[in-house]
Give the backbone structure.
Amino acid sequence: MKEHIFFGLLLISLWSCKSELSTEKMVHRVLQEAPLIDGHNDLLIHYIWCGECPRELDAYPLDTATSGHIDLPRLRKGGVGALLTNIFGRGRQMNEYLQGWDLIYRIAEKYPDDFQLTTSSKEVRQAMKEGRIGIIPSMEHTYQLVDDLGMLRTLYHLGLRSVILAYDTNNIADGAYDEPVHDGLSAYGKEMVLEMNRLGIMLDLSHITEKGMLDALEITKAPVIFSHANARALTDTRRNVSDEVLLKLKENGGVIMLTPVNYFTTQEAYDYFFVEMDSVRKVFDERYPDPDQMTDEEIERADEEWMAWENANPLPVVTVKDFADHFDYVKNLIGVDHIGIGSDFDGMTYLIEGVEDASTFPHILSELAHRGWTESELKKVTQQNFLRVFEAVEQRSKELKISTNPRIAKVPTQDGE
């Protein structure tokens, strides 16, 4: 009897090893044939928004291990073929913003065998075919776009191919966590959407209110993306996407690029950061209302109190399995043709177990494969869905440029002129 049990366990173990090897081979094949396109990253933060910034490129070399989530060794290990890279500056002035563009161009020039600035789906495909990683310029903070559509056109010619309408509420749209001002998109914001359609710039609905999402989906003439967001049904935050919007996204033909941000992935993590921690922070704000006037003893005591709270209330563990639940949910609701991956690497602090940096993208695919996702489905997730949207945006632009002229709308002034 014991021998039968032993051989039974041995067979199970061998089958498990064979299954793991089969999954590993499939994931490797997927990333070889369809390298992953990451919907959002904040690489430039290490050159622009850091204690020693601004930095030159040699101060944060990408061809060796970095302190962030992205570098060339880890991008290669993770099977990455292209990145929608957020271009931003140290401040809101145009010259500061253009410094971000200077950086991204210089990064491509410094590593010509590894990176290529890509401004079309054809260029992305060609870069990946030649073994380079495409950099697709995108914009998250729209400070430079809120006054005149002429600036949108200028930045398009510079290479801009994807724009989030609002991070915080601006003259275009309401930000997800702000009090609504426009009840969705402003009249100017709607003109912005149509001009983005005409130019061939992807419309990114991350960070705006649900009403803004619905407004945009109602008027856009091309498919849209969510570059980094999850399913609100699983984690109830306004930064995630409701079922109603997801169903509209399916009608639109767009794609949601699911993101491994800790507090967008589980309700427990979201409540920890935005309910429990916020309430503790308010107590600290009342106890220490003016940090600039605190003595060294008060600072030390406050730090000790905060650490004591964190030790007593540890950060909830969020894993790649929790993240995969969002893939299953969206697939069941609107189908696999509308799913991608947007990491938000270098733009977030709290990581989930199993998706700690760019080298770990295969872990996501392995988890999905274990859940029964097929090789063809995984290829759709890694790049095919996004490239379909990019190509559709480009094709719609060609049609609109024939039938429509550049829009000249400006933000109304207070006196209405």
